[in-house]
Amino acid sequence: MEQNTTPTPAGNNGKNLGIAGMILGIIAIIVSFVPCFGWWAIVIAVVGLVLSAISMSQAKKANAPKGMAIAGLICSALAIIIGGIWIFVIAKAVTEGAEVFKEAMEHSGAMDSLTKAMDQLKDLTDTTQTH
Is residue 103 part of a domain? Predict the structure, then answer.
């Protein structure tokens, strides 16, 4: 009887997860530079960060190379930072834009005519409800 002496592979030691984490990190960095879509990069980067962390843990236990996992961690962290900056920038722009719009409406007199129209509408509805 013949014996099979070929060794069985010990697994990929987190290599596939490291590759997936790095690819997601790279995609997240690219997406993070797109205005108004930068916050989506955070979602992608968190997944890449988790995969890379798991890969790092598995590679550490198996004493395997950790290069892909480290690259995934760095790319994902950068994408989270860039996406966070975009969220801050857009929120600040919307807040300041709303303030400028409010001031412009107050100085143009448009709010006065709107208030006058609302008062007329209220008077009209009050008179129709009493009849």
Answer: yes
